[in-house]
């Protein structure tokens, strides 16, 4: 593989459907002739992962690959980039390693000489690194005659170091022989990763401290939370030994946590540092990380009326839009959302950077519910005072979906999992959809699993069991497409339900032919937002250009909903008359680090009554939930045809 091929394949992975080599050339800034010359080699590399590159005359090229295959390709591309001195990924890791761990007076000239690149490239790299560090509240400063330095607070340094190491050293060659008493939630992959930095003795001690805290708190952390708490404690241990202790709150709102979490954090750190003094802030930050960690148990009910009222309003609108207003477990759902919002508030107050990429899967599987959950998230954000992340909206989407679905047949199976009940049910739903002859009727957590009682039944295990039986299928901890293929040779399509709804004239008028534009030649997200904003101004929907406002929101939380669609929105302020601009781009446009967009819905809404908002969301949910209609819109000849499709669907 070379840099050209890596760049082209990376662009292909992010694109769906057919596109021309000319479009690929404009997206990658690589000449058409160079791409054509390398296309056979690129096709061969793609096929190594089970994917295929189709080439159809007069239609273009298309990568045919499952999401799992696309992830495997990206992992290989990242591995190549991280070991290639000509790659930005390599240079970024090199520069950050120096600045974090060897804070000498490194200058642009010195980096230029060591990396064998021009000062101009180093300067460009530093600009990108500065943006990357912003999300960790760290500042990259160039000091005159003293070189470059990163400024910030200790807790933020730890968050950034964890993220950088995860992206750089997530290895494929695993340590086969694991310690005898290693916790089952620490996989070969995670243990191999930890072993690059920490001794086996320290890893084993830290997992023991965490396990005791689980007993004291009466909870069991899900696998990913257990691993991240382990990683945080191991890094904290090495940083504190270097004299790098958390000494101030860095203007954080240090909301008081339940006493049990404070005690658990103190007990762990006192065991790790029996002679260390002035550890109060270390206790508090660890307590916050433990509090927001996901557990195998359902969230406890929350009795705070303010949180419950906020959750009730949100759940009501989303379920109504889905036409699931009679959901049996709605009250329980409202309590779950309320408890989750409290955790989100704590996470924001302590500025915890937590991620799990849940939104990627949810956008793929539940994109219509995610779209409505995203569109009405502004109601929550107004009260919370900050923007929710994609993963936070994805989690609420998962909870809402689980409350709305219904059971089925009597066929039996056991699903053994070490995650929280909501994710367990969601993963079981994916298995059910994949297996025509199997319905998961019991969710079994690892601590409830009894091999004797499972005799004669098919057991699907997501964690390593002590003694594997003949009737057990071991799959990965987070159900992937490959896992589904083990259970069933095909994925059953979701049954399409026709949405018979009566849309008010005021809502129907938000879709206008004058607000639809096709073949928009833009290459950045900001340009797309600017085009839509200008269009809405010309049609009398907006009183002013909202590009900066909307772009700032997008940078905090992209509004992609999967399937190359973005749902940008602005409410009330600057909106003169409600309208939805629809932009179909000529080329897929990068919308976030992990997604590109071909179709943009820009919602400018000034409705005051919740009934009007509800009807709008119902129409959007119905539209986006219909994959055939969305495909027609993507393939339609022009704005007139798209408008006809919309009016026929909306009714």
TrEMBL record:
<protein>
    <submittedName>
        <fullName>PTS sugar transporter subunit IIA</fullName>
    </submittedName>
</protein>
<keyword id="KW-0804">Transcription</keyword>
<dbReference type="InterPro" id="IPR007737">
    <property type="entry name" value="Mga_HTH"/>
</dbReference>
<keyword id="KW-0813">Transport</keyword>
<dbReference type="InterPro" id="IPR016152">
    <property type="entry name" value="PTrfase/Anion_transptr"/>
</dbReference>
<feature type="domain" description="PTS EIIA type-2">
    <location>
        <begin position="509"/>
        <end position="649"/>
    </location>
</feature>
<dbReference type="InterPro" id="IPR002178">
    <property type="entry name" value="PTS_EIIA_type-2_dom"/>
</dbReference>
<dbReference type="GO" id="GO:0006355">
    <property type="term" value="P:regulation of DNA-templated transcription"/>
</dbReference>
<dbReference type="InterPro" id="IPR050661">
    <property type="entry name" value="BglG_antiterminators"/>
</dbReference>
<dbReference type="InterPro" id="IPR011608">
    <property type="entry name" value="PRD"/>
</dbReference>
<dbReference type="Pfam" id="PF05043">
    <property type="entry name" value="Mga"/>
</dbReference>
<feature type="domain" description="PRD">
    <location>
        <begin position="302"/>
        <end position="410"/>
    </location>
</feature>
<keyword id="KW-0762">Sugar transport</keyword>
<keyword id="KW-0805">Transcription regulation</keyword>
<dbReference type="Pfam" id="PF00359">
    <property type="entry name" value="PTS_EIIA_2"/>
</dbReference>
């Amino acid at each position: 593989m070379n840099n050209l091929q890596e760049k082209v394949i990376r662009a292909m992975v992010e694109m769906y459907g057919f596109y021309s080599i000319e479009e690929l050339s404009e997206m990658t800034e690589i000449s058409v002739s160079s791409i054509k010359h390398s296309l056979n080699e690129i096709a061969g590399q793609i096929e190594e992962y089970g994917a295929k590159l189709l080439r159809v005359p007069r239609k273009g090229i298309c990568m045919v690959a499952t999401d799992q295959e696309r992830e495997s390709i990206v992992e290989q591309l990242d591995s190549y980039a991280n070991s290639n001195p000509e790659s930005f990924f390599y240079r970024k890791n090199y520069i950050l390693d120096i600045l974090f761990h060897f804070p000498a007076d490194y200058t642009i000239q010195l980096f230029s000489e060591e990396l064998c690149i021009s000062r101009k490239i180093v300067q460009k790299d530093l600009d990108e690194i500065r943006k990357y560090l912003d999300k960790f509240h760290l500042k990259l400063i160039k000091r005159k005659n003293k070189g470059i330095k990163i400024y910030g607070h200790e807790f933020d340094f730890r968050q950034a170091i964890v993220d950088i190491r995860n992206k750089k050293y997530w290895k494929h060659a695993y340590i086969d022989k694991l310690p005898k008493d290693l916790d089952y939630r620490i996989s070969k992959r995670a243990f191999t990763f930890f072993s690059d930095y920490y001794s086996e003795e320290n890893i084993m001690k830290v997992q023991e401290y965490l396990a005791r805290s689980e007993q004291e708190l009466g909870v069991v952390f899900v696998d990913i939370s257990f691993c991240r708490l382990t990683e945080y404690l191991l890094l904290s241990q090495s940083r504190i030994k270097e004299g790098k202790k958390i000494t101030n709150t860095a203007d954080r709102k240090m909301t008081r946590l339940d006493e049990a979490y404070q005690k658990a954090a103190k007990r762990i750190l006192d065991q790790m540092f029996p002679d260390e003094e002035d550890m109060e802030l270390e206790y508090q930050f660890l307590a916050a990380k433990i509090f927001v960690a996901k557990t195998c148990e359902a969230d406890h009910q929350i009795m705070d009326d303010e949180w419950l009222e906020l959750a009730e309003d949100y759940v009501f609108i989303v379920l109504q839009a889905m036409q699931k207003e009679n959901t049996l477990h709605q009250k329980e759902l409202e309590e779950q959302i309320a408890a989750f919002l409290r955790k989100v508030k704590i996470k924001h107050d302590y500025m915890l950077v937590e991620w799990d990429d849940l939104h990627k899967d949810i956008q793929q599987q539940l994109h219509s519910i995610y779209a409505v959950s995203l569109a009405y998230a502004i109601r929550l954000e107004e009260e919370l005072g900050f923007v929710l992340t994609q993963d936070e909206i994805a989690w609420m989407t998962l909870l809402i979906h689980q409350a709305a679905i219904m059971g089925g047949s009597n066929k039996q199976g056991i699903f053994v999992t070490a995650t929280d009940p909501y994710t367990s049910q969601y993963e079981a739903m994916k298995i059910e959809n994949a297996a025509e002859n199997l319905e998961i009727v019991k969710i079994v957590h690892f601590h409830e699993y009894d091999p004797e009682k499972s005799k004669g039944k098919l057991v699907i295990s997501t964690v390593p069991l002590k003694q594997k039986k003949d009737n057990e299928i071991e799959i990965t901890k987070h159900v992937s497409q490959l896992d589904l293929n083990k259970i069933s040779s095909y994925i059953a399509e979701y049954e399409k339900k026709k949405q018979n709804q009566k849309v008010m004239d005021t809502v129907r008028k938000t879709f206008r032919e004058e607000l639809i534009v096709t073949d928009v030649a833009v290459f950045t997200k900001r340009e797309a937002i600017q085009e839509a904003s200008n269009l809405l101004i010309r049609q009398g929907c907006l009183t002013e250009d909202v590009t900066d406002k909307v772009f700032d929101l997008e940078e905090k939380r992209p509004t992609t909903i999967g399937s190359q669609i973005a749902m940008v929105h602005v409410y009330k302020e600057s909106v003169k008359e409600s309208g939805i601009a629809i932009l179909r781009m000529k080329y897929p446009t990068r919308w976030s680090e992990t997604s590109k967009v071909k179709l943009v819905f820009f919602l400018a809404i000034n409705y005051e009554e919740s009934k009007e908002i509800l009807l709008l969301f119902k129409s959007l949910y119905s539209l986006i939930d219909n994959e055939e209609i969305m495909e027609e819109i993507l393939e339609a000849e022009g704005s007139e045809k798209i408008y006809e499709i919309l009016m026929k669907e909306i009714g």
